[in-house]
Amino acid sequence: KKEELKEKIKRSSFQMEQINKVRSISIWIFIVPFVAVNTCLIITTQLHFLIEPQYKIFMPFPYIDGGVSISRTARYFPTYLIFKPAMFLTAYLLIIYWYNNRKIILSFDISNKYRNKIYYFGVASAVALVIHSIFLGVKFDNDFYKLFRRVIMFVFIIFEIVAQTYLVLALYSLK
Question: In terms of C-beta density within 10 A (0-12 exposed, 13-18 middle, 19 or more buried), how is residue 111 classed?
């Protein structure tokens, strides 16, 4: 009985450690892109001496009027020097996030049918984010290229939603 209790406490401690990791990582997954996007927005709309004249934007407030897109503020020098590394860091954090979520599910139920789907779709979404970030700001006047960038962003969103759905299903199945 003592050995069972010790094992249960050890497993519970591991689970709490993993849950705390996921909480911390999820906060950083929010903070990094938020800071990067808003820094690019401020540079593009307020710090005009840092950018070329054709890329200046005057007085939009995209959270209300939709006057400018994220990619519009982040695709030109020097803003892409902020945005791209932030997206690479976010993709890395997403991979760690999904890996740790998988470990949490496995610690509760090693035979959970969603355990691998969570991780695979989560990592695939991070890869799509990296691909999108790599091609952001690359100039090709080609409709196929523009479609490719949009499809990659769409794939990122879909894979992230699918991974989140499988995570909810996995957590729900634990009850």
Answer: exposed
